[in-house]
# Entry
Amino acid sequence: MRLDLLLCRLRFAKSRAVAQRWIGEGHIRCNGERVVRIDRPITAGDVLTLPIGRGVRVIAIETLPERRGPAGEAQAHYRVLDA
# Structure
């Protein structure tokens, strides 16, 4: 699944355009490496580092979502590692 689509479906970004801007500006890391391609494929088991507000959130992708659903459904697809 494309990274921009995943960020939108997991409700970290309000739209794919916002997700694409974050990726283009180099704010997202996948498995410790800065992501520069918007269409970078993401699979279950990948670890993403995201800027959330004034902090940073590290998550592990458990499963890939089929759709952009409610927040509870989205949270079932990842595990927070930095809590």
The longest strand covers residues 55-61. The chain has a mean pLDDT of 95. The radius of gyration is 11 Å. The chain is about 25% helix and 25% strand.
